[in-house]
Amino acid sequence: MSSMEDQTRRPNSTSKLLLWFFSISACLKLLLIPSYHSTDFEVHRHWLALTRSLPLSNWYSDETSPWTLDYPPFFAYFERSLSLFAHLVDPRIVDIYNGLEYKANSVIYFQRISVILSDLCLVYGVYRLTKNLEEKRRDLMWVLVVWSPGLMIVDHIHFQYNGFLLGWLLLSISCLQEGKDLMGGFLFAVLLCFKHLFAVAAPVYFVYLLRHYCWKGFVRGFGRLSLMSAVVVAVFAAAYGPFIYHGQIQQIIRRMFPFGRGLCHAYWAPNFWVFYIILDKVLSFILRRLGFDIQIPAASFTGGLVGDSSPFAVLPRVTPATTFILVLLALSPCLIRAWGNPRPGLIARWIAYAYMCGFLFGWHVHEKAALHFVIPLAIVAVQSLEDAKHYFMLSIVSCYSLFPLLYEAQEYPIKVMLLILHSILMWLGFSALFNEKSVTKAANKKKGTQLEVKGSRERGTLDEGGAMKAGTNSFKILL
Amino acid sequence: MGKYKNANIGTAREKNTVKNNSAASSKGSGSKFDALIGGVEKMLVEKEREVLNKFNPLIWSSSSSSSSSSSSSSSSATLDNRTAIKIAADRHHVNIHVVRSPLAVALQRSQIRSSDRKGQDWTDSLLSIHLSFHIGQCIILLCAVKLIKTNGLLTGLSRERQMGKKKAEKVTDDKVEVDNGDHVWWWLICRSIGASFLCISVFALLIRVAVSLHPYSGAGNPPKFGDYEAQRHWMEITLNLPAKEWYRNSTINDLGYWGLDYPPLTAYQSYVHGLFLRCFDPDSVSLFTSRGHETNLGKLLMRWTVLSSDALIFFPAVFGFVSVYHTSRTSSRKTDIVWHIAMLLLGPCLILIDHGHFQYNCISLGLTVGAVAAILSQKELVASVLFTLALNHKQMSAYFAPAFLSHLLGKCLRRKHPLLEVTKLGLVVIGTFAVIWWPYLHSTDAIFEVLSRLAPFERGIYEDYVANFWCTTSILIKWKRLFTTQTLKIISLTATVLTCLPSMVQQLLAPSSKGFLYGLLNSSLSFYLFSFQVHEKSILLPLLPASLLALEEPRPFKWLTHLALFSMFPLLCRDKLVLPYVALYALFTLLYHAPGQCSGRSKTSKTDYSSVASNMTGLLYLCSFILHIVYLTMCPPEKLPFLFEAVIMLLCFSQFMLFAFYTNAKQWLLSKRSITEKEKKHI
User: Fold this and answer.
1) Closest CA relative to residue B308, chosen from B56, B55, B52
2) For position B595, what pLDDT does the model report?
3) Residue of B nearest to A39 (CA)
4) Which of B55, B377, B509, B679 has the largest CB neighbor count within 10 A?
5) Which residues of chain B from 473 to 502 reach within 8 Å of chain A, CB to CB?
6) Which residues are CB-neighbours of B247 under 8 A, at least 6 positions away?
7) Burial class, B374, CB count within 10 angstroms (exposed 0-12 / middle 13-18 / buried 19+)
8) A59: which DSSP letter?
9) CB–CB of B40 and A423 under 8 A?
């Protein structure tokens, strides 16, 4: 095979190809600048203004706009650093009063381009992750991550900085896979201080790091444990320290965990609670038909806000604690596996699984949270045909579930086209990756006995499906 | 209680629509289950077709149902504004997903805006719609799982393969050898060319949709607006007046305001698109009152008409051309074919003019490409029909006429019965013309009426700052002052014919496929440089054969694209299309220099170029880059307000002239080479 040759030409040309992928997507992202953007655009603009013009002690208590700061401090620092450039572009962007609902071209270009550039973090993350991977799997993973339709919809049309944050996550995973546990833990702690919603994977990190990093005899293990906790504490201190100093910590926690917001977000994420609510509605309907006196709850799910009264007519009320326990329960098989056999090769799978659990059972989940598991799952997808099948379905469904974010007719063809393109790319990529492997394997297997069959297969006379099946069988046997 | 009932009725109704949808899709895939057409893409493709096929009856049912419910709810208690907006937003997304038609939403937006007040009971019925939406999602999910499991999507094949089997697989499987460049693109080219083409064409469509988000020419610029308004006005005229009136100046058809000045096929196309517009936005094409009509919905619908014509005419034509062209080429690598498809479908100039500036060049150019494909596959009659259609869509297609004429004539003369062949072709061409011009054939007056509209000689020999001979030399020689229009007509005609002649003679003497492509390039270039009344946008015509020849002449092709874009830069600046200009130019450069691609190409082409030449082109690239910046940032001196345009024009013109010399020489060398080869064979 040509793997030796690949090894030699790797460092230079690989990064070139990855950058090429990135630039192609950047061109499309540039073209999408005038497309629809959600209120998140104004949210982030306001945060630019807020962090620029107010002292640190007021960041989390300011209420000039309804879009108050509800991300952890590192994200606020990130906005602050962006605002330095924004000020140079157009001072009105960072004006806390005059800038409200500012919609000039300058602010749109500035914010859109800042998202495009911050995606470089994602590119670096995926580069680190795939450094030591076989060439074909690597190419495919780049296609899946860098050209992810979900990121395109959420970040570059709807407007958010998920690419940047997921880049940190991928960096952290890449460190863990290389065995650099301390670095991985550090990066994850940093990520948590950027966006606390990533904390769903914290149990996995905790168990994995405890077993893989700290479980090395009593003295050495204790030393490592304290080192790791020192690093994490240092990160959190750097993030929250200044706010603790100003006595703002309670305010921050109130902002970051708004449990009053209700079980489901205004746009429901397609998770377990949807079925729960449907069941409640159906039951109450049937019971009322049967003659029972059932109160129709005053609160609505679509409003996003729920008061004190229970929104359910029949079924018991769901509290944040319930969802928390359910998430942990769903996570437990994976945690037990991680405890029993902490293998670096499986960490990406576990993390993706953890985010999936959080998505399915969490409290007030956004549909955008689907990205948290789709992107790490791409790492897993290229490993085997079975995983590829799962990823194929999941990524299509999760991309489809993002469709409600773009409700204007103008963006309709864009989102449909993105999804179609993504599925075609996956179909081409996966079938190329696994077909070829299976064909060569099937060929190897039958080399000794049936030369003529192999020959005919290579000539392509046999149905590809048949070859594929034989290939997967042999693949399974080999495993 | 009553409220709740309402909601339940809503649920039932919405559920029905969801069921219908899923039933339809599963039925569609079920019938062809055995044919292995399926998988999730199948459903998605169907969905896309649904979008394109805008005459979906569901649209009407949903819009009527929601309008009735909104009227019922408007009477009940009110909420505060913010909730109302939220509800409106919710309704949007529900509608999109239940009905899956953007038009319904677009139609409703106006209604929703007018009725801001929402009743409390809306939240409940919304909830039920939500529920049905999620049920729909689950059903789709289950369908997807089932399809994947039974069809074995990753192992199974879909119709691209069958398509590929027919056309392209025999091309590629036999001849294509795996090369170094291939293993960068293994994931794109693993299957047939059809699959790769599908992938690239979806990407190309995506780029086109993204470009169409940007402003069009003359947006918000009364009283004359721009090409967008012209096209819309033609739809209005053709839709509301009988065909005889289309080209006649009268009280109901003021030709002074964007009168129809393209041949009848454009008028028919406007009529069809007008019908489509009338279905969804009748105001935008109503007679008289719709002048200067500019709404978001109107813009969207107009953009979609261009998109659909592009996808239905230009894309298939390119596919046909690529499959024919690469069967005849002996040394095509699969990667090269894919690269060539990308170059053809993602040419920045065509996308910018059609989907940014707003025109329908894709139709006439697509028909021309189809004609070229037909000629390459030896189907002369089909070719002449297609080219006649192209000619009847835009008279500018006549730029290619000398090449078609000389090639077909040259071929016919070499056959057994030359006269018979020529008459056959002539009859086909005349027949096609007759069919298209049928409404005007009743009198010579009517024909001349149309013809006078098609040749607007009164507009002068050049307009604006187009980089052709007449405009550039007018800096020194004031053509318009020295000669009358009549003499100028004759002078320009002779100049054009004279410059066309070499390539025509070559094709008459030695007709060949390659020579024909060069002939197309040469004749269109000489028309662009020397004919009467040329527009900047006409550079699209020489660019087309250049892109067809992209594999033969990669570097000149890149250079020509660069210059063509540059020559249109002032125009695109006026249209506020600088951002798509930059993005598409970057995209083109990236695709041109795709990794794993150019290694082979640059090696072969380096021998053609001396270091001096490459230094020169480098210098010119730098110049044009600086000029771009200067044009954008600096104000010209007051005495010479068009200084920068003139400089751009000069630069482009000199390069176009060089290019014309180069390609003419290339074409003549072709025949020489073939002669020497023949001689060698004889020896």
Assistant:
1) B52
2) 81
3) B86
4) B377
5) none
6) B255, B259, B260, B440, B449, B450, B453
7) buried
8) T
9) yes
Q: How many domains does chain B contain in total?
A: 2
Collapsed DSSP state (helix, strand, coil) of residue B534: strand
Nearest Cβ partner for B89 among A20, A407, A410:
A407
User: Which residues of chain A make contact with B130, given a CB cutoff of 8 A?
Assistant: 268, 301-302
Helices (H) and strands (E) in chain B, counts: 32, 0
Distance from C-alpha of A237 to C-alpha of A243, rounded to nearest angstrom:
10
Statement to judge: residues B432 and B525 lie in one domain: yes
Would the CB atoms of B582 and A30 count as touching at under 8 Å?
yes
Q: Which residues of chain B have pLDDT under 70?
A: 1-183, 596-610, 678, 680-683
The answer to whether the CB atoms of A277 and B131 lie below 8 A apart is yes
Write the secondary structure of B99-135 as one string of H (helix), E (strand) and C (coil): HCCHHHHHHHHHHHHHCCCCCCHHHHHHHHHHHHHHH
Tell me whether residues A34 and B140 touch, CB distance under 8 A: no
- Token pair in block for residue A140: 């495919």
Q: What local confidence, expressed as pLDDT, does residue B349 receive?
A: 96
Q: What is the pLDDT of residue B76?
A: 38
Output the average pLDDT for chain A.
Answer: 84
Whether B231 is in a domain gets the answer no
Query: Residue A417: what residue type?
Result: M
Residue B530 lies in a domain: yes
**What residues pair up with B462 in beta bridges, in sequence order?**
B534
Nearest Cα neighbor of A208 from A316, A342, A28 is: A342
Burial status of residue A246 (CB atoms within 10 A of its CB: 0-12, 13-18, 19 or more): middle
| Contact with chain B for residue A33, Cβ under 8 A | yes
**Residue B533 near residue B463, CB atoms below 8 Å:** yes
Provide mean pLDDT across the span A128-135: 88
Contact check, Cβ <8 Å, B209/A414: yes
For B635-662, give one letter per residue: b (16+ CB within 10 A) or e.
eeeeeeeeebbbbbbebbbebbbebbee
Q: Which pLDDT belongs to residue A334?
A: 92
Q: Are residues B151 and B23 part of one domain?
A: yes
Query: Is A435 within 8 Å of A464 (Cβ atoms)?
Result: yes
**Same structural domain, B168 and B300:** no
State whether B137 and B214 are in the same domain.
no
Cα atoms in the 13 Å half-sphere on the side-chain side of B451 = 7
Give 3-state DSSP helix, strand, coil % of chain A, rounded to 5. 75, 0, 25
B185 in a structural domain: no
B93 touches chain A (CB under 8 A): yes
3-class SS of residue A215: coil
User: Measured between beta carbons, which residues in chain B are less than 8 angstroms from residue A464?
Assistant: 155, 157
Q: Helix, strand or coil for residue A264? A: strand
The model carries a pTM of 0.80
**Residue in B closest to A280 by C-alpha:** B131
Task: Give CA–CA dist A38/B124, Å, rounded.
Answer: 25
Q: Which range of residues forms the domain containing residue B612?
A: 193-219+294-682
Q: B581: burial class by Cβ within 10 Å (0-12, 13-18, 19+)?
A: buried
* A313 pLDDT higher than 70: yes
> Which residue is closest to B301 within chain A, CA to CA?
A410
Residue A172 confidence (pLDDT): 95
Q: Choose among B154, B188, B583: nearest Cβ to A31.
A: B583
Please tell me the distance from the alpha carbon of residue A291 to that of residue A425, in angstroms, as a whole number. 55
How confident is the model at residue B315, as a pLDDT? 96
Cβ count within 10 A of residue B261: 18
B325 within some domain: yes
Question: CA Rg, chain B, in Å?
Answer: 28
Cβ contact B151:B39 at 8 Å: yes
Q: Give the B window 280-319 contacts with A, CB below 8 Å.
A: 296-297, 300, 304, 307
